[in-house]
Amino acid sequence: MEGDPLTLLGPELNVGEDAPDAVLVGNDLSEQKLSSFFGKTLIVSVVPSLDTGVCDRQTRRFNEEASALGEGVLVLTISTDLPFAQARWCGAAGVQRVRTLSDHREVAFGKAYGVLIKGLRLLARVIFVIDAGGKIAYIERVVELTNEPDYDAAVAAAKAAQNG
Description:
Layout: E1 8-9, E2 23-25, E3 31-33, E4 41-46, H1 53-69, E5 73-79, H2 83-93, E6 98-102, H3 108-113, E7 116-117, E8 122-123, E9 126-130, E10 136-141, H4 151-163
Parallel strand pairs: 4-5, 5-6
Antiparallel strand pairs: 1-7, 2-3, 4-9, 7-8, 9-10
């Protein structure tokens, strides 16, 4: 972060591997298994916190992109923000095409996907595309936490996975 190295906990996943399952929390406090979304192509946008400028821009951009991707692609934004904070942010930002999920309880997603930042209980900025069969089709680990991801590459990967 800002040139200082961070340690990520968990495995380093690779394209072609099965996407691990994890239990997350929906905005209504319901448990949401990531695997329940398999069957659609997923863009999983992982952010440290929606209440920061880069995460805000990233989620808004994927909300815009989701409109053009069709019903076969679902965009999920995952952070350790509380579900209430995620719902408040989405309402204030007018974000309706991205589904936010919280990893605040057990950071199960962060641990399973190797994106939990040691000592901060935040998630690193990473984009995963998971195909309808539950395989990882694309990964971008944003090297500098304060940078935005390559939106065009993620959208292209989702389209390729959907047609694929």
